[in-house]
Structures are given as C-alpha cells and as structure tokens.
Write the structure tokens for this entry.
Amino acid sequence: MSNYLSAFDTANLAVNGAIILVVAIGLTMAFRRRLGATSRRVAFFLAMLSVGGIIQATLLRDPPTVSCVECLTHWSLDRLVSGHVGTDTALNIALFVPLGLFATLLWKAPFRVTGAGALLSLAIEIAQPLLGVGANDLADIAANTLGAFLGAGLAAVILLVRDTIASRHLDLRRFATLALTILVTVGLAVGISIGGADAVRSAGAEQLNTMFAGTTRADYQRNEEAWAPRLEAFWKANRTPTNDAYNDEQVALQRYTWTFYWTTRCVVARWDTDGFRTEAADGRQCTERLP
C-alpha cells in the first residue's frame, strides 16, 4: 500500500471520485432516518467518503495485473521488526485517520472503530494480491490500525469536550479511561521504540567487540582493506545502518547509526594505540561530525 499518493495521479481518478461521492450520498440518504440528527448524517457521509478514499488509494490505484494466490501464505515481518519507517509508513497511518475520526464521532465506540479499521485493512491486504494491485504486508496493517486508533482517539477527545461543555459536567469515568488509554499507548510506543533501538545498538556493539577485540590502530592501518569485507558483512547483518568513518595517525573510527521507530542510536568502533573499544551514543551525538 506504500506510495498510495499515486492514487491521486491516475487517469480514472475523476470517474472513481464521482462514483465514491454518489455512493456516499446514496448511502447517507438511504439511512437518513435511522441516522437521525444532521450531525450524524454528516459524520456518516464523511466516514463513507473516507472508506471510498481508502479503496481508491489501495485497490483502484493501478490497473489489475496477475493474481497471486500463493502470496497469501507469505506475510513478511521484516518491516515490522526492522523498525525502518519512512514516508510510506506515515501515509499509511494518515490514510485511516479520517475513518477513525468520523466513524467514532458517529458511533461513539473508539475501540470498536479501531478494530473495524484493522479488519478493513486486513481485507484490503488480502484483496490486493488476489486482484493483482499490490502486495500483502503486515506492516501496512499495523500502520493502518494505528491510523484508525489515532483518529478514534481524537474523536473521543472531541466528544468528551463537547459533552462536558454541553452538560457543564466532566464525566470522570470517561476522562480516566481516555487518559489511561493515552498514557498506555504513549508508554508502549516509547518503550518499544527506545527498547528496540537500545537492543539493536547493544547487539551491534557486542558483535564489533567480538570481531575486533585485541586489535589496535596499527592493526587497523595494516588490515583496513582486508577488514572491509568483515565490516560490510556486519553492516548487512545489522539492518544496513548509516555508516561514516574517520581516520588519522592516532585513531580510526567507524560509526554505525540505526533509527528504530524514530529513535536513533549509534555505536562508534574506535581503534587507538591502547586497543579497540566501542562507544555507545544516541540522539544528536549520532549525527554530529566525527572528529
């Protein structure tokens, strides 16, 4: 589902957009009595538009090619466990935020809406290889579910503020549930990001210490070319971190920098006259120029 921005640069966008609009209007009119208040009708209409936009971006973006039934037996975990995130991840999150927002404003059930968003994402990931319009990826499901959750959370805050203003009374139970959910979510996100980044850095430092224990700056100078394949193998085995180096008559440095879900960690391999050691660093230290 990555690169779904191309969905907005297709020849059939106008036709698909018109169909989505007509269907959203038709469904809203069909359920107008059951929906009741105008605000609920508007929320339902916007939720249907959100679903239509998701379908356009994921299933109608490209012309169908060859179906891949066997793809459904392979669900890669590489993107999830690597911690590599980019524009495609942010876009996949953003894609489901409107649905989570408007559906929760309509049904006032943020957790159910989040679950429905996850099921919709799963259905799309199954349909993509079957229709030949994309590949199935667990990372996309995780990103979409997070987007639905964020949208639902935003709607829950809006609903709480609205009801508090209308009644001039704060529902402490709802407030506590919302606050606890936010704290747990933020705590888990920070914990996974920092813990994962620390684990990757520790594993990298341990491997470097095993590879080069007992060596010195002189060994590095004599064996720099011979060690290049070993360092390249380390780089490939450790999720291709960003690499930079420094070398003078006194010291040789090789720095490996990882970003795991927005948390940056790095290890500096240091050879000097006293021997070899690794130095752990994080944040801005990992982006400063080596001396």
In short: The CA atoms of residues 50 and 99 lie 5 Å apart. The mean pLDDT is 91.
